[in-house]
Amino acid sequence: MVGLNMAGPARDRVMKLMQDKDKIENEIRDQTAILETNNVGMHDSLVDSEGYPRNDIDVYKVRHARHRIICLQNDHKNIMKLIERGLAEVHKELLCSNGEGPSVNAAATSNGYTNGASAGDTVPRPVAEDDQAFAIIGFVTAGSPADLAGLQERDEVLQFGSVNYHNFEDMSQINTIVSHSVGQQVNVKVKREQNVINISVVPRPWQQPGLLGCHIQRIS
């Protein structure tokens, strides 16, 4: 990650924020595990056909877990914004330590983060000739796992987990990766404008149906 191997106040702040981010993500996984243990998601009914609390699940724990997940997702989104700003400061410190001023490339890198790249990203790089997209991100729902990770509408997908342009056959491959990676990071490489950005997204139940909260469609 840019500049995180150098000392400096901005670097220290970002490292602390990243530790807090990891704690939030770990608790989200813990709370998601409670839902999985009870075989429910964020929207399954907690009452039976007669309107009584279901006796096959721990209703109290499920309600608490759902509430915590919503709160944690909001906390995660806020801390990601702080990390993005911190990374821009780290990059600025790195340029200053090298005796360099802001440049066109530096501005492009900073824009990669302010456009929503997650803290786990490597530095955005220019698009190369062999960067071929096989899918494109459609709508991204605010507050969804995809949104929190930094995916944006019109991002062109170069790689999703183990799937890339060369081995992509159909969208079922993406669905399989998502369904088998609940609570785990999936590395996604996207082309955004003239930059290539690496993003880590964690599929998980949230307030709405689905595990990502975005629409991905193949490029015809």
TrEMBL record:
Residues 15-92 form the Nas2 N-terminal domain. Coiled coil: none annotated. Signal peptide: none annotated. Pfam families: Nas2_N (PF18265), PDZ_6 (PF17820). Residues 140-192 form the PDZ domain. GO terms for biological process: proteasome regulatory particle assembly. InterPro entries: Nas2_N (IPR040815), PDZ_6 (IPR041489), PDZ_sf (IPR036034), PSMD9 (IPR035269). Keywords: Chaperone. GO terms for cellular component: cytoplasm; nucleus. Belongs to the proteasome subunit p27 family. PANTHER family: 26S PROTEASOME NON-ATPASE REGULATORY SUBUNIT 9. This is 26S proteasome non-ATPase regulatory subunit 9. It comes from Spodoptera exigua (Beet armyworm).
